[in-house]
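Hi there,

I know you've been waiting on this one. I reran it after we fixed the sequence typo, so this is the corrected version. Both the input and the resulting structure follow.
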Amino acid sequence: MIVFSANSRRMLWWICILLCIAECTANGHSAATVQQITHGPKNHFFGYVGHGGTIPWDASGRYIVGLRTNFHDRMPKPDDSAEIVLIDTRNRFRVEVVDRTQAWNQQQGTMLFWIPGAAGSRFLFNDKDPETGVVFSVLYDMKERRRIREFRFGNESIANGGVSPVRDEFAGINYGKITRSREVISYPGAYDHTADEKPANPDSDGLFRIDIKTGERHLLVSYAKLADLILNTEKNRARLGDPDKYPIYVHHTMWSRDGQWIFF
């Protein structure tokens, strides 16, 4: 069996894409063109594309939101910032820095999501308080070129994990616990208020629904409930034993197209 490294897999992926484009163009099946819109020496990226329906383009198709960093070959350190940029596709792809964040990684980015029903002018991203390490979400207005709201919940690092495609709400998850549990999608330096708590899967933390208009949150399902669901069979109880040995965390959320269901 041949095992490819992560870099090799990415290279093979891009080779396949380029070969498909070349084949379609050669056979006259497509008039698609490929154009480079950003340039070095800095790195430009978005993070998850198509995750829960999110795309980099605004509703008008003019602006592309993304991140810009000085490096791409290591995980960010706690004090490494990424620039939030807007790319104007009707003005020679001009890149404008509109904000910065300390809550990001190369795989997920900073969970950039355009808000539906906001005339295509507002988007969410995550940030981290440099003093406390608490992660929170930011609502940014492109027309006003400023943050118009921050969703903070005391010392809890609850932030955006996915935006509803039909309503002004997003799924909130504990990024402090994610940072403690899964490095590749972590926000280094994120504070986890549950790190020393018992039980490891409390009934006060889990998957939240957060109202963008009011800032109110509602716990949809707790980690305690998820632990009960996992250990609801004799086989699982015998194999896993004490649920406190296995802190559960949610790191992906995806809304259904009608906004009625959340997959995680």
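Quick highlight: Residues 6-26 form the longest helix (21 residues).

Best,
R. S.
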